Amino acid sequence: MQNLTHFVNGEHIEGVSGRFSDVFNPATGEVQAQCPLASTEEVNAIIAKAAAAQPAWAAVNPQRRARVMMKFVGLLNRDMDKLAEALSREHGKTLPDAAGDVQRGLEVVEYCIGAPQMLKGDFTDSAGPGIDMYSMRQALGVTAGITPFNFPAMIPMWMFAPAIACGNAFILKPSERDPSVPLMLAELLKEAGLPDGILQVVNGDKEAVDALLHSETVQSIGFVGSTPIAEYIYATGCANGKRVQCFGGAKNHMIIMPDADLDQAADALLGAGYGAAGERCMAISVAVPVGEETADLLIEKLTSRIETLKVGPYTAGNDVDYGPVITAAAKENILKLVQSGIDQGAKLVVDGRNFNLQGYEDGFFVGPHLFDNVTSDMDIYTKEIFGPVLSTIRAKTYEEAIGYAMDHEYGNGTAIYTRDGDTARDFANRINVGMVGINVPIPVPLAYHTFGGWKKSVFGDLNQHGPDAFKFYTRTKTVTARWPSGIKEGGEFSIPVMG
Question: Could you read off the pLDDT of 405-431 as tens digits, one per residue?
C-alpha cells in the first residue's frame, strides 16, 4: 500500500498528525493508498513557509513568471498519459475522460502565459497640473484553494495557475479521495522552474480547511464542491476578511424543443448525463422535452442508447463509456435517491439497480438509470444526485420548460436543443443560469472566458479562469504622482481638485 505525502517547499514530506484517510481503487473497492490528514499546526507551518517565499516571487517580473507556465505546459503534455492513468486509478474515470480533465486544466495554464498583458495597469498623463495617475495590479500574498474529487487535475490548475502567474503563493488542499495527481502537478511545476514554497499541497479534512479559513496570512480562498460546504466556506472566509469564491451544487436542465434533431439531442444527453458516471457539476441531469410527442420519441431513443452503454474499469479499454463512482457511500446515496424516485411516483424506464460487473463485485459501479414522468417536488429533481441518473420532466410548452430551469435553486449550466434561432436567442437572454448551451450539452467555457453559475451554485462576485481570475488574485493600487517643477508655491491646505 502506498503512503502519500504533503508537498512542502519543493519536497514530499510525511504527515505527522497520525491521522490518515483511505484512498480507494473505485473499480475494485480496495484500499490502494493512505493519505495523511494535516493538523492545524501542520497547516500553519506550511502557511508560514508560503508567506516567506512569496515576496521574492512577486518581485519576479510577469514575463519570467509566464515562462514558468510555458514550461509547465510542455511538461503536462509530456506526462499526459502518466497523469491520466494516475487520475483514472484513483477516481475511476475512463482514460480519455481523465486526459480531458488534464487538458482542460492545461488550457487555463496556457491562458496564464499571457499574464504580462493581463496584469497591465492604466495610466493617465497630466491628470492635473504636473500630476500623473496610474494603477497597478499587485499580488494578494498567500492564497489557497480547496478542490473536489471529480476533477483532481482541472480544478486545481484553474485555481493555482492564475494565482501563481499573478505573483501569489498558493496552498492547495485537494480532495483526500484522489490526491495523487495534485502532488504530481506540484512536482511538474517545480521541474518547470517554480521556486520552492510557491505551490504547497497539503492534504487534509475539515481541520485543514478551518486552519486555512482562520489564518490571518491567507488572503483568499477558492472552493468547488457541494452548496452546503460552499456556503460555510464563503461565510467563514468572508467573516475572516478574505476574498472568497465558492462554487456549489448544480441541477442542469436540457430543454428539447419539438423542432430539435432528436437523434442529436439523445446522443448529447447520453454523454452529458452519464459521462464520468454523472459526477460532473456540469452534467445534464434533467431532460425537459416540450410536448408529449417529443417526450415519447426522446424516451424511445434514449432507452435504446442507454441499454448499450458499456460500464467498466478504465483498464477495460477506451470504449468504456463510464466507470465507477468515487466511494461506496456515493453509490449508496445514489441508489437511495433512485428508490425515492420510485416511491414518489416517477417511472423508472431504465433500471440500473441490479448492475453487476463480473470480477468487480466489490467496486463502486452504478448502472445507468432513466426516469420519466418526474415532477418538480420529487427528491430526484430537487437534489443533486451526482450519479448516472437522468430524470425526464415533461413540459407542455416552451414557457413551462424554461420555468423549470428558472425556478430551480441551482443555476450552474443549462442547454436548449432547437433549430429555431428566435427560440434560442430568447432562451439565452432570459434564462437565469450562468452557463448556457445552444445545441451544446455541456457549455463549459474555454479558458479565455470565465466559468461560473448563478443562484445557489455560486457564492462570490468573480468567476473562475479567464479575465476574472486575474482580478480575483490581485489588488488594484492607484498612484497619484507629482514631481516638483522647481516653482515653490507653499503648502496647500484644502482638498486638491484635479480640474
Answer: 999 999 999 999 999 999 999 999 999
Pair 294, 258: CB distance under 8 Å: yes
Q: What is the pLDDT of residue 108?
A: 98
Cβ(106)–Cβ(73) below 8 Å: yes
Strand-strand pairing, 347-350 and 243-247: unpaired
Grid cell listed for 461: 462576485
CATH topology of domain 252-438: Aldehyde Dehydrogenase; Chain A, domain 2 (3.40.309)
Per-domain residue ranges of the chain: 2-248+457-479, 252-438
Render pLDDT for 305-316 as a digit per residue (tens, 0 to 9): 999 999 999 999
246 counts as catalytic: no
Q: Which of 142, 191, 193, 204 is nearest to 170 (CA)?
A: 142
Q: What is the pLDDT of residues 167-182, one digit of tens each?
A: 999 999 999 999 999 9
Instruction: Give yes or no for a contact between 334 and 387, defined as CB atoms under 8 angstroms apart.
Output: yes
Residues 6+ away with beta carbon under 8 Å from 356: none
pLDDT band at 6 (very low <50, low <70, confident <90, very high): very high
Q: How large is the average pLDDT for residues 368-397?
A: 98
**Measured CA distances, 276 to 30, 281, 369, 387 (Å):** 20, 11, 14, 9
Measure the CA–CA gap between 406 and 378, rounded to whole angstroms.
Answer: 17
Q: Quick one: average pLDDT of 327-352?
A: 98
Closest CA to 222 of 247, 249, 203, 204: 247
AA identity, residue 256:
I
DSSP state of 175: -
How far apart CA 167 and CA 465 sit, in angstroms, is 16
Compute the distance between CA of residue 22 and CA of residue 327 in angstroms, rounded to an integer: 11
pLDDT tens-digit series, residues 152-209: 999 999 999 999 999 999 999 999 999 999 999 999 999 999 999 999 999 999 999 9
Q: Are 296 and 303 in contact (CB under 8 A)?
A: no
Query: In this structure, which topology does domain 2-248+457-479 adopt according to CATH?
Result: Aldehyde Dehydrogenase; Chain A, domain 1 (3.40.605)
